[in-house]
Design goal:
single chain, 75% helix
């Protein structure tokens, strides 16, 4: 077993206060923060608000798609990350296309609902498989990649708990929305969906923070690789210096041998 495969000695210790602050910042970055939540809610809110007033599917859909594009343009103008805004555009675009194709305004919400259901199943299945999805998402953010799988069992346990939390919360959300899709009208479904956008998300993020705050600190594999490269470079320089001392030449006789 190499040093990269060995578990760390402090896997039973919880994170210090500064590591918890890093965890908060990483979660904020990974899930988009307040701005990301706003960008997620606004298109659907605009759609249901316009549809509630005039029952015009085309106007509601175009307005939702337009505001999504505006959010992306604003991000680009500010040279900010656009991944959350782009994901919102794609989600709204799928909803618009689907609703326009079927002519049923409720179908604007169906792609997002199916995505939520699929994501819930993915969280639960990956947790059962021992490769929790939340760990795959947050590993690169914490610069630990997949080191938590073999080297940090306490952290793997926290990621597993968090994935279960996300999966069950999203399943509960689906259990509310899908019956409404069949039984409620478009405006009722839309307003309930808007109301359920942020609270379940915040609950899942909070539980993730709770689990990770009690877990061992992440292993920075990038720093380890840099340290190994520096050690290898230092070892080469030491050998070159030793060879130079033996041959009496600064370059260890390299040029002479090459000639």
């Amino acid at each position: 077993m190499t040093s990269l495969d060995k578990p760390t000695e402090d896997t039973d210790q919880t994170q210090p206060q500064d590591a918890r602050a890093v965890t908060e910042a990483a979660l904020f970055e990974a899930f988009g923060g307040v701005r990301g939540m706003v960008e997620t809610v606004v298109p659907g809110l605009l759609f249901v608000a316009i549809f509630t007033v005039n029952k015009d599917l085309h106007l509601s859909a175009i307005a939702a798609l337009a505001v999504s594009l505006v959010l992306v343009v604003v991000r680009l103008a500010m040279r900010d990350t656009v991944k959350h805004a782009f994901s919102g555009v794609f989600g709204v675009a799928f909803g618009v296309v689907f609703a326009m194709f079927t002519g049923n305004a409720k179908d604007f919400y169906l792609p997002g609902m199916l995505y939520t259901l699929g994501l819930a199943v993915a969280y639960i299945v990956t947790a059962l498989a021992g490769v929790p999805l939340i760990g795959l998402i947050l590993g690169p953010v914490f610069k630990e990649n997949l080191s938590w799988r073999t080297r940090n069992p306490g952290r793997k346990k926290a990621y597993t708990k968090a994935s279960w939390a996300w999966g069950l919360i999203l399943l509960a959300k689906c259990a509310i929305l899908f019956p409404l899709y069949w039984w409620a009208d478009t405006t009722q479904l839309g307003w309930v969906l808007v109301a359920l956008k942020i609270p379940p998300f915040l609950l899942a993020v909070w539980l993730t923070w709770v689990f990770l705050a009690k877990a061992p600190a992440p292993i920075d594999v990038f720093a380890e690789m840099e340290a190994q490269e520096e050690a290898q470079k230092a070892e080469k320089e030491r050998k070159a210096a030793a060879l130079a001392a033996e041959t009496g030449e600064p370059d260890g006789g390299r040029h002479r041998r090459e000639a």
